[in-house]
Amino acid sequence: MIDFGKLALLASPTPQAEEAAVELRKAYDWVDLADASAVVALGGDGFMLQVLHDMLDSGHILPVFGMNLGTFGFLMNDWRESDLTTRLRAAKAITVSPLCMKVVTIGGQCFTSPAINEVSLLRETRQTAKLEITVGTRVVIPELVCDGVLVATPAGSTAYNFSAQGPILPLDSGMLALTPISPFRPRRWRGAILPERTPVRIRVLDAAKRPVSAVADQREYRDVETVEVNIDRSQALTLLFDPEHALDDRIAMEQFAIG
User: Fold this and answer.
1) Band of the pLDDT at 209, cuts 50, 70, 90?
2) Which of 17, 41, 211, 228 could anchor a disulfide with 69, C-beta 3.0 to 4.6 Å?
3) Is 45 a catalytic residue?
């Protein structure tokens, strides 16, 4: 249960967001993040992802109501100073489970990072990447020659995944999109839709000659050899939306966007 008397305010370091934060601090009472039961975030989608990643890193996960003072604001609500408490009480809660990316580099270093939108592998040089893709326990593509490949959540399916010709996934679909980026061989493979509990393992073939980086949302690891991607149900995130502008409906309607 959210205690609306214990809200923390976070703002992107942009003039628009900082000016809006000044107005909100005058109009409402706020507490420190450590004492809060929910967060109001001012900025764009990039700032929202930063806030969510900071929560995942700290383990202090709170519901977040974002207001758009950035460019696109797909993960945000409209900016309004008035009626904030009323909007929060009426907000629709959307639960999003991140991906967990486990990376092993050519040098043997191991890293783990969450991804809310997608995990993407990208070639680092002019050389095309050569990737072996395993789904579950089966090698489904022995050699994918491409610029890269990505695994996207439903929340991220309208972002990089969609621009790479991947499918839009309904938020409650329980699926992940596995989408190639500029595939050369096999020529006819355009990706797959997988149950979200299916692990995906990607091995870079000839990794020294054809180096590949792995990116979990905005965090990049270079010269990778293997990448494993799994859904992480243990760190579910909660986003709050105005009922008429909720994320699940936005994702569904993106299938009909022609502008």
Assistant:
1) very high
2) 17
3) yes
